[in-house]
Design brief:
By secondary structure, this protein is of the alpha+beta class. The chain has three domains: 1-73; 84-139 and 168-175 and 309-444, no CATH class; 186-302, no CATH class. It is 15% helix and 31% strand. It contains eight helices and 28 strands. The chain has helices spanning 9-22, 53-57, 62-67, 117-124, 282-289, 330-333, 343-354, 388-397; strands at residues 27-34, 37-47, 88-93, 101-106, 128-131, 151-153, 156-159, 166-171, 177-182, 187-190, 196-198, 201-202, 208-212, 223-230, 235-238, 252-256, 262-263, 276-280, 299-302, 311-315, 319-322, 325-326, 359-365, 370-375, 400-405, 414-416, 419-420, 435-440. The strands form seven sheets. It has a six-stranded antiparallel beta sheet, covered by helices on one side. Strands 4-28-5-26-27 form a five-stranded antiparallel beta sheet, covered by helices on one side. A five-stranded antiparallel beta sheet has the order 7-6-20-8-9, with no helix packed on it. The longest helix has 14 residues, at 9-22.
């Protein structure tokens, strides 16, 4: 049984007193560095060691320890334990020898909806595929399948970037190249007179930003992992990749046709292959109502550096390596643990960063080789998983000079020649995901 993070002497004393009052037994202390600030240390109390989960639940001290805020923890998944194996799969690509291409594909070819990596790969005829971005998993957090961060497909932004998070950028001409960059990629509605109106998002539900990191959001405009931030006044653009119709109650909605002209009526049967829909809420609905009248000319303006059809990008976090050196800025990328963080959120951040879990990462070696790495986890007899610090060490040991963590957990999936080569952690099998990185042969 373990306590949540204890960030002060008062918190530690309170938990120790609770254990003495509600249960019996000694405790051990583990220390961890705060995400992004290894000079600061917090502690975890461990007490009441048991041989199995069933044993702890049937014990006489379980109720007392639970009342004190303790939770069961498998010691194999803690970095202090040497128990359990690692199952690591490495897909290495030498761009000088590879005649095919790299691309990112959305599940079902659109934002809304999910598919297993194998299904995305099969539809594209891919040689291999690995899971990619973080995404919305539940309707309460937005459109299921919405990429939670930057997505660029064939040179066009399909999902907006989040403040503080890096992206993997892929280009295929003249040769396959990848880079890991900090990109803001703002999006705006541009008018013939040069006026630009900033848009808040692309292809998502208004008012809901998964993982936060959007200007104007509350409770924060910086990235906050596994948290959904809100904004009552937003402009959202929906293009042909949205895969969903906006809520009919949205205060403002217009269609912009293929000629870039506002129409009061959109195409029958849903989104058009050409053109786009603009929706707005709150004060931004009033702002656009005065500007976007039928017949008005308007276009989407982005700061992404390329509109070439062979360029792609996906979001990831935290950044692991840059220019050959370890980099830890997790507190800026979605895991801001400090003494003001609510205890429940601090516990989630501790588990996400400092406990072992399935991981997926991409790295770039000094010789230009591209590495896609999966480490299975949460399966004691198969693979216990890696902490973020351990993943960073693995990528560095493999020769990566730049490396980025991608979505992990039950999403971690690697498919080669149509065959699942890793061991996903979900009992139901490979988890449906929002997108995948695909290796395509020369004919694709």
């Amino acid at each position: 049984m373990r306590s949540p993070p204890l960030r002060s002497e008062n918190e530690a004393s309170s938990f120790e007193a609770c254990v003495a009052r509600e249960a019996s037994g000694d405790w051990e202390t583990e220390t961890y560095g705060y995400p992004g600030r290894p000079d600061l240390i917090y502690r975890i109390l461990n007490t009441g060691a048991f041989t199995s989960l069933e044993a702890v639940r049937s014990s006489g001290v379980y109720a007392g320890l639970t009342a004190c805020g303790f939770k069961p923890q498998n010691v194999q998944y803690t970095p202090q334990s040497d128990n359990g194996p690692w199952n690591v799969n490495i897909l290495e690509l030498d761009p000088t020898q590879f005649a095919g291409s790299l691309r990112i594909d959305l599940a079902r070819g659109e934002i809304a909806g999910l598919e297993p990596v194998a299904a995305i790969a099969e539809r594209a005829g891919a040689l291999a595929a690995v899971n990619a971005s973080f995404f919305v998993m539940h309707a309460a957090d937005g459109i299921v399948g919405d990429v939670a961060g930057l997505s660029v497909i064939e040179g066009r932004i399909r999902s907006e970037a989040l403040n503080g998070r890096a992206a993997l950028v892929v280009a295929n001409k003249p040769d396959v190249t990848v880079s890991i960059e900090d990109l803001t990629a703002p999006v705006a509605l541009a008018f013939p007179d040069g006026t630009q109106i900033a848009a808040d998002g692309i292809n998502r539900a208004p008012g809901l930003t998964r993982n936060c990191g959007n200007d104007g959001d509350h409770p924060t405009s910086i990235a906050m992992h596994d948290v959904t931030c809100r904004d009552d006044g937003e402009i959202i653009i929906l293009d042909s990749k949205a895969g969903f119709e906006p809520d009919p109650s949205v205060p403002f909605r217009v269609f912009v046709n293929a000629l870039g002209l506002v129409s009061d009526r959109g195409p029958a049967g849903g989104m058009a292959d050409e053109g786009f829909v603009v929706i707005a809420t709150g004060e931004r609905a009033d702002e656009l109502a005065a500007l976007l009248k039928p017949g008005q000319s308007v276009e989407i303006q982005t700061a992404f550096r390329s509109s070439q059809s062979d360029v792609f990008a996906i979001n990831g976090a935290p950044l692991l390596l840059r220019d050959g050196a370890p980099i830890d800025r997790a507190h800026l990328e979605g895991w801001p643990l400090d003494d003001q963080t609510p205890l429940a959120l601090a516990d989630e951040i501790h588990q996400w960063i400092n406990l072992r879990a399935p991981r997926t990462a991409v790295g770039i070696r000094g010789d230009g080789h591209i590495l896609f790495v999966t480490i299975d986890g949460r399966q004691g007899e198969v693979s216990v998983g890696a902490t973020i610090a351990e993943l960073r060490d693995v990528m560095r040991a493999l020769g990566a000079v730049d490396a980025l963590n991608l979505d992990g957990g039950g999403s971690t999936t690697l498919v080669v020649d149509g065959r699942l080569v890793n061991s996903p952690s979900d009992l139901s099998g490979p988890r449906p995901v929002a997108d995948a990185v695909l290796l395509l042969g020369q004919s694709n």
